[in-house]
Amino acid sequence: MKKREKIFIFDIGGVFVKLDPASRDRAVSRQGIAGPPLRYGDVPEAIFRDFRLGRSAEPDYVEALAKVFGVPSESVYAAEHAYVAQGFEEFIGFVRKLRQDHRVVCLSNNQPIHWRYISDNLLGSGYFDREYLSQEMGLEKPDRMIFQAVSEAEGCSEKDVFFIDDIEENVLAAREIGWQHCIVHRDPAETAELLTALAAGHTLN
User: Fold this and answer.
1) Which of 24, 68, 77, 149 is deepest in the core (most CB within 10 A)?
2) Can you tell me the distance from the alpha carbon of 191 to that of 53, in angstroms, rounded to the nearest whole number?
3) How far apart are CA 106 and CA 20, in angstroms?
4) Residues forming beta bridges with residue 9, ordered by sequence position
5) DSSP code string of the chain
6) What b/e string do you get for 20-58 counting C-beta neighbours within 10 Å, with b at 16 or more?
7) Is 127 exposed, middle or buried (0-12, 13-18, 19+ CB in 10 A)?
8) Terminus-to-terminus CA distance in the chain, angstroms?
9) Cα distance between residue 141 and residue 25, in whole Å
10) What is the Cα–Cα distance from 2 to 46, expressed in whole angstroms?
11) If pLDDT is split at 50, 70 and 90, which confidence band does 64 have?
12) Strand order in the sheet with 130-133
């Protein structure tokens, strides 16, 4: 294939960024309160889903969490940032080099607070050729419609797509719509090695 005919589509959390739920919970814990502390896992999923899908505004999301945890909004922001504060630097550098010869985009179930922190502090602006984010699309993986929307926007052939995600359910959904090269990410070094071979023209089989 000619330069940049292949398109590499990456998930963000768990691939470029180490997710840290324990640090997130600690940031909203209230000292001296009787009983077990509330955790993010105790929050109704609808609050997170609506924010991921762009159905609720950032101030409303922060206010809802501050009310649940009984903490100021500053603590909510600290918790959200702590969750995505560490990046896999070697893999970030590898994909930056991959982009020199191939189109590289992201497809992420994300929300504005996380994405802003990741973009500003871990990846840098303009890291991807294009960003496909759930909060902007109103869709999220593994809904097959989000994969179809990316295919249509990119105008790419399914055989030229290389999709990398750390959640197997998302990989299976991508395969169902025809994306032929889908990788379940487990280890940055292993994924980098595999992508190097794929970029050179080898196949997954």
Assistant:
1) 24
2) 28
3) 21
4) 105, 163
5) --TT-SEEEE--BTTTEE--HHHHHHHT--TT-SSSPP-GGGS-HHHHHHHHTT-S-HHHHHHHHHHHHT--HHHHHHHHHHHT-EE-HHHHHHHHHHTTTSEEEEEE---HHHHHHHIIIII-TT-SSEEEEHHHHT--TT-HHHHHHHHHHHT--GGGEEEEES-HHHHHHHHHTT--EEEE---HHHHHHHHHHHHTT----
6) eeebbbebbeeeeeeeeebebeeeeeebbebbbbbebee
7) middle
8) 18
9) 25
10) 45
11) very high
12) 130-133, 103-108, 7-10, 161-165, 181-184
Q: Among 94, 61, 70, which residue's Cα sits nearest to residue 198?
A: 94
What's at 197, amino acid-wise? Answer: A
**pLDDT, tens digit (0-9, with 9 covering 90-100), for 139-181:** 999 999 999 999 999 998 888 899 999 999 999 999 999 998 9
Copy the structure tokens of residue 14: 């768990």
What is the spatial distance between Cα 127 and Cα 192, in angstroms, rounded to a whole number?
A: 17
Rounded to whole angstroms, the Cα distance separating 21 from 82 reads 8
The position carrying tokens 């590898």 is 94
| Residue whose tokens read 């890291």 | 127
